[in-house]
Known about the structure:
The complex is a heterodimer.
Chain A: E1 10-11, E2 18-20, H1 34-67, H2 71-97, H3 106-112, E3 122-123, H4 125-152, H5 156-181, H6 184-188
Helix pairs in contact in A: 1-2, 1-3, 1-4, 2-5, 4-5
Chain B: E1 14-16, H1 30-61, H2 69-93, H3 102-108, E2 113-114, E3 118-119, H4 121-148, H5 152-177, H6 180-183
Helix pairs in contact in B: 1-2, 1-3, 1-4, 2-5, 4-5
Amino acid sequence: MANPQTGRLVQPLDGATVRQEWGTVEENALRLDREDAARVVEALNADHAGAFNLFYLLRKHYWTAAGAEHEQVADVLKDGYERARGLNDAIAERITELGGVPASTPPQIQEYSPVHLEAEHLFDLRASLTGDLEAYATLAASMRDHVTLAKQVGDEATVELLQDELEDLEAAAHDLEELLADDTLVEVSR
Amino acid sequence: MSAPHLRHPGEDALRQEWGTVGENALRLDTATTEELVAALNRDLSGLYILFNQLRKQYWTLSGRDVGQVVEFLEDAADRLAEMTDELAIRVVALGGVPVNGPKGIREHAPLRIEAGDVYDLRSSLSNDLDGYATLAVQFRDHITLADELGDNGTSDVLRDHIETIEADAHDLEKFLADDTLVRTN
């Protein structure tokens, strides 16, 4: 095989059978109208991709804090990234229950995500965490819009999933907010 | 790969540029740490790709009757996440910037990324096994490299995890040897 660092990094899997194409929505076992399910899948893919990027942002900052031995900051960030990953998994599984395919390649994730990744340099912790707080707010706003959509099409299970996850997301954002309000972060930022 | 919009908190907040290796508190010289950081970033890129490949598979397999496979993939992804953290934190300690986004993943990629379609189970698991095999070879090479360069900290981190990689590869082999996997396709 050619070197993965040149040419297209994302490739169809050689010799495999495609069971379901990206972007399609199959019949679901939930008795939801297929067009309604397709609208919810499209919306959830944005939340899914947003949670995916939030997970990577928080984890990047966890590495930086842990590598510099800022234990208190590192603990909050580790807890935050684990919760973001759980949210990411929960939304992805709902997408498949609805008959859809969750976004998985980097181009798909970046196309769908309302949360932007950070440039690949290392930044001051306070600036990094301020950006993470914005990422939480962006994702929560997207999920709230999709609660409304799911209510419109009568998809109660998605409504409940998003509402439960929103509560958890807001609690995690609050933990980060408290860290930013704390003076210790001023010292570790330099 | 598309060029995503990236958040940039501004030059004032910039502490270290991607691709650079700064001072470290471990008394290793920079020529040594540059080589180690490049090696670990290649491992991190591979771990990123394999981790997301396993996650894609357990997301799309959920609800299908595939026995222990989903559970295995979830647990194996957790193990990959744990070693990713330890390697990335080691890169920071060595004065480097760990792979943390699409550009770095591409620059150091030892594996290709599966397209976004859902594939049959047997082909998916075979691709996972290839990924584990590639990582196992790399980890072994990098243990030798770290030993040669006198960085016991890095070779210890890698040694801690090579057994996990080999054990999970072996479990995948057993799933693939099982005839029931053919029937569930």
